[in-house]
Specification:
Elements (H helix, E strand, L loop, with lengths): L6 H17 L6 H7 L4 H7 L3 H26 L6 H14 L1 H7 L4 H6 L8 H24 L8 H22 L3 H18 L7
Length: 204
């Protein structure tokens, strides 16, 4: 996660992310965040003008980490010269890291804030859309040359489906109380992608 060098602000953001992801934005009070961060109202309002401002800064931080996660996947697969092989390897990168991801977080902050009517059309909505489009554009760029001979496939929709898989898998992990659901869903997406690309490979 990006850090600004201020341990108090970082501690408040870390606690707020956990609370809001676990119990929702509306159910999380400023007093609860302050108490669990072992902070004070003075310290909180030094860094955040309001609970909404906390949410805005929290989403900005989360988006930065999300885009870094995207960049890591692109960098890890940049050595592939075959477009189809790289597209599959890109998805496998996240499949292989799914257990570690779920050990770090129980859900997605995007779903938490987008469920709040007050954030519809807001800066927060714009920040989430920015990250979502970045994932779509990156995967579309990988998929388009790999699917050059398949004009029947909506490449952008296929790219968006990875985002949908992530979000749906978070819900399944909670529903079944089973963090391995994230890895399982990413594996299915990867297998379906392999089938579309005609790129068979042995599962580990």
């Amino acid at each position: 996660m990006p850090r600004d060098g201020n341990p108090t602000r970082e501690r408040i953001l870390r606690v707020a992310e956990r609370l809001m992801t676990d119990q929702g934005y509306s159910a999380t009070s400023v007093d609860q965040v302050i108490a669990e961060a072992a902070s004070s109202k003075g310290a909180f309002f030094h860094h955040f003008s309001s609970k909404t401002d906390l949410a805005v800064q929290l989403v900005e931080r989360y988006v930065a980490a999300d885009l870094a996660h995207l960049d890591a996947g692109l960098a890890a697969t940049a050595h592939h010269t075959d477009p189809a092989a790289r597209a599959v390897a890109f998805v496998r990168h996240y499949e292989d890291g799914a257990d570690a991801l779920m050990s770090e977080q129980s859900g997605c902050l995007y779903a938490t804030v987008l469920a709040e009517r007050e954030f519809t059309g807001s800066e927060i909505n714009d920040q989430v859309a920015k990250a979502t489009r970045a994932w779509r554009d990156a995967l579309t760029d990988l998929l388009r040359p790999a699917l050059a001979g398949r004009p029947d496939i909506d490449v952008e929709a296929l790219a968006d489906h990875l985002y949908t898989t992530f979000e749906g898998a978070f819900i399944l992990c909670r529903t079944y109380t089973d963090p391995s659901a994230m890895r399982a869903q990413l594996r299915v997406y990867r297998q379906l992608l392999q089938a579309l690309l005609g790129k068979e490979e042995a599962d580990p």
